[in-house]
Amino acid sequence: MKFRVLALLCVSVSLWFMTASAQAPGFEGTWYGSIKPPGSSIEIALNLQKDGNSWSGVLLLQDGTRVPLKDIAAQPNTISFALDAGPSQVTFSGKLLASASEIEGDFTQAGSTFPFKLSRNVGGAQQAGGLGLDASELIAMMTPYSGNASDRPFVPPLTHPAIGYGSADARDPIAILKRDIQDGKVQLKSEGQDGYLRSLLDVLKIPVESQVAVFSKNSLQSPMIGPENPRLLYFNDSVALGIVRGGFIEIASQDPEHGINFYMLPQDPMPKPFIIQRDDCLRCHVSRNTMDIPGMLLRSVYPSKAGIPINSMGSYLMDHRTKYEERWGGWYVTGNSGSIKHLGNAIVPDPTTESMTPLNDLPEKHPSDIVALMVFQHQMHLMNLIMRVGWEYRVAAFVERGTGKRNEVIDRQLRDATNELVDYMLFVDEPALPNKIAGKSGFAEKFAALGPSDSKGRSLRQFDLERRMMRYPVSYMIYSPGFDALPADAKKAVYERMRQVMTSRFSSADRDAILEILNETKKDF
Known about the structure:
This protein is an alpha+beta fold. It folds into 2 domains: 3-121, Lipocalin (Beta Barrel), CATH 2.40.128; 131-525, no CATH class. Helix content is 26%, strand content 20%. The chain is built from 12 helices and 20 strands. The protein has helices at residues 3-7, 124-128, 135-142, 173-182, 197-204, 282-285, 370-403, 408-425, 443-448, 481-484, 488-505, 508-521, and strands at 17-18, 29-35, 42-51, 54-60, 66-68, 70-74, 78-85, 88-96, 102-109, 112-119, 212-214, 231-235, 239-243, 249-255, 259-265, 276-278, 299-301, 315-317, 346-347, 357-358. The strands form 4 sheets. Strands 5-4-3-2-10-9-8-7-6 form a 9-stranded antiparallel sheet. A 7-stranded antiparallel sheet has the order 1-16-15-14-13-12-11, with helices on both faces. A two-stranded antiparallel ribbon has the order 17-18. A hairpin with a 5-residue loop joins strand 4 (54-60) and strand 5 (66-68). Helix 3 packs across helix 7, helix 7 runs antiparallel to helix 8 (408-425) and helix 8 (408-425) packs across helix 11 (488-505). The longest helix is centred in the last third of the chain and has 34 residues, at 370-403. The N and C termini lie far apart (58 Å).
């Protein structure tokens, strides 16, 4: 291990690690915490694994660097280990506290000793934020604003009890997978250059055909990303994961009630892979661009020949409403796009001219199916909208319980948010396709077969791809865990608004078909 790796421990980094559930007593498993040299606090994650009487372990740093542990000695209540730091050696020595969920001890390097503390649980400062706000304070914070959820800030703190982001037990697919791995119910297999990718896709039921490729440097792993080495993304209704050759796997996983949680999976082969939850992703993934919630973010940029976004030329947020000529800058686009003009498959070799040059020889090397791209950009924004609306209804219920009455301004905010969600779910502002498009990865066929289908074989996942994206313009995400977890009054309002919009805007053929499909396949509709 190079000395520069351990040097990272001697600077303060802004990184919180979280875990979703307590584990069995003992040292095996994942721990999160900090080392505290004078004047700083350095967040780390630690994984310990036992095979018979032998121990192995890894310490993880913010940039994905893994530092192997050595000389691990564990007794029932004490543990020590070491790692190399070039000319010096680093040692740790700690004890398991009575709760069996914390380790306290000392970190020693070059003759200096600092305290450290590790825990199975979320950091106390992260949990505490916003817990003291009462209903009257929330009303004062929320009521100065009006308009759609996309135009109106979300002002309650994410950790407020009505929301519980980062403090309630996580129930997203990756949190569940972590528990299953630790309990020995699931094993991930590392294979060749892809590492855990194929095994992870299989376990999460993410189709490999969903692959899309982005070569602009917009990621934790930006230094490795470029036209020759794009970040490959895969997704299903709840999870999106990315992989860069030579790096780790990034994962965004939606908890049905609490929003997107972010994880990383280092590619080191080990009996129980080290999946950690990381909060530093929220620096980009909680902003006005994600509607102030932990959400998904897709950008179209003007990339340089190295993949660096040329910010002076501007950029575009992408969802299914985005003009085609503004889509996919910094992305590869493969399949048949016909006459559609877009920004994909091209770079700006000379920023002074602001003209784009095609990357003719690279897109086919990095398949990025146009149908998968269109579904992906539709879904990522809708995941944000569903979660934002659910949070607003939960906060409104908290306010009503606290004051004993409904607030008219907050009710109006709920109506605006509901209308925005429904319009998006019904593709109201989707631009018409100028011609027929087609993918060639097999994604469209696999996606359409997922259903559910009614007795006539019709499904909201079936594509049109000549006039518009979907054959029946209601989003398949109405079946997603996130939508199903919306509060009952939110779903009631959504369904009422859907019927109103379909009556006023849809053809009778579309409306009748959609109502028949939903009446058969969505029990609470």
